[in-house]
Structure prediction request, 409 residues.
Amino acid sequence: MQPVDGFLTVGQPVAVAAVRGLLAQGRAHAILLVGQPGVGKMPLAMDLAAALLCEHAADGLGPCRACRGCRMVEHGNHADLHLLAPAGAGGNVVIGGADAQLRPGVRDLVADLALHSVEGGARVAIVREAHRMTEDAQSALLKTLEEPPDNTTLILCADDDEQLLPTIRSRCARVRLGTVDARSIETLLGARGLADPPTAARLARLTAGRAGLAVAYAAAPEAVAIRAELVRRLLDLLAARPAERLGAAKDLQTRALALARLLAPAPPPESTAAPKGRGKAAAKPVTAAAASQPAEGDDAEEPADAVAEPAAKVSAAERRLGMRTLVDLWRDLTRDLVLVERGAAATVRDVALLEELDAAARALPRGVAAQALTRLVRAGELLDGNVTPELVLDTLLLRWPHRAPASRR
Prediction:
């Protein structure tokens, strides 16, 4: 697809227009991009960074995509573009400290921004998954948001701005991104040569307007197979006894982690390099290609073929990442189950499961699927905290609605 006025973000005309308006008004010192995972927050943040660091962009216009500044942003090696992302066991954006060389935090980013620009122009800092900032990290960022260094712009990308302190939200210009229309996703997948029209249409529907997630599935067809395996296993567990459900937990975790690793964007080569030496620890650079992928797995850096390793070698961050992926697809499955129960089968996302969904909906007491959906939403919130993933999984399995096996009905 051809960029529109230098912006590469797909399917977000309202958000792009809002960002261009902020640029034209000179109100780009702190911007909060809010929307579901995979709808395009990072691509829009990178478009904004390119516009700010472009050597030829006029106010309110997009980057030229041809100058030295634009090329450096595209290749992820612009010295004045910084990325701070979740890290560590909790998958949080931390305040920073003695281990900053391995786990940079907000204080390290602030210290780096206090120095002069390397290229002598603007500086841009992107905080990926800003909703995962700890409260201490958010407090450490407040002073910089109140009085940003000259010619510096901070861009916060958050799935849920309610998880940010009110004082953080009040100091940012907020731009909300909605889901991307199915036709735009289909066009995107086709333009990149990732899927034929029928597959593109299925993925657009399956991912419910999350373009980045659709791209990730299209780029890893085996991920689609694992997803189908997981949702069918969850449907089978509707008829299982408690012991069988708990016995399935480990396999569900393993397969969900395999799926998460396939969907996670590969870290750019520069992100594994030593810090640049400016400030306590330079934030990791990011390439435009990496930014176009979904943001669910910033800390999943191991190859997909490592999924069979012993559980003891799987980090806490990866266990949490896998569980988030499982809860996400489980929530989508349960939503479809509720829709079928209510006679709205035409709006389900996974049409390949329509027959199984109809059989399950008829076999369950009315209303229990909606209750399960509420629990899954709450489970996602708990995983954003420090609740043990295994505890969340066991609870969800035991409270998953129960139907009698076919032989007993």
The chain has 17 helices and five strands.
